[in-house]
């Protein structure tokens, strides 16, 4: 394959803070060179890197791209994410899947599906 997914990038107000939240979501760490302007999570892992870049403009409206996660102990994981700073937005049971939509500390929505 000549192309691969390298990073998923979040524009944000504070890169270090948002990277810390997402590192907690993934039970990982923020990479060593993170700061308020630029931070990454999982840069050396065999998976896409989460990259956080400080931008001057605020987020407007719902993000058009979001992260979907799945958990076998769904309720416990949702509670853990809320404890990290996520906010519950909505809950759905459609298309044969049960999931909850959450928002990270900067308001970016993401989903956690119940995985059996």
UniProtKB/TrEMBL annotation:
A Pfam family the protein falls into: Glyoxalase_6
Residue ranges of domain VOC in the record: 4-115
PANTHER family tied to this protein: CONSERVED PROTEIN, HYPOTHETICAL FUSION PROTEIN
InterPro entries in alphabetical order: Glyas_Bleomycin-R_OHBP_Dase, Glyoxalase_6, VOC_core
Signal peptide: none
Name of this protein: VOC family protein
Domain of life per record: Bacteria
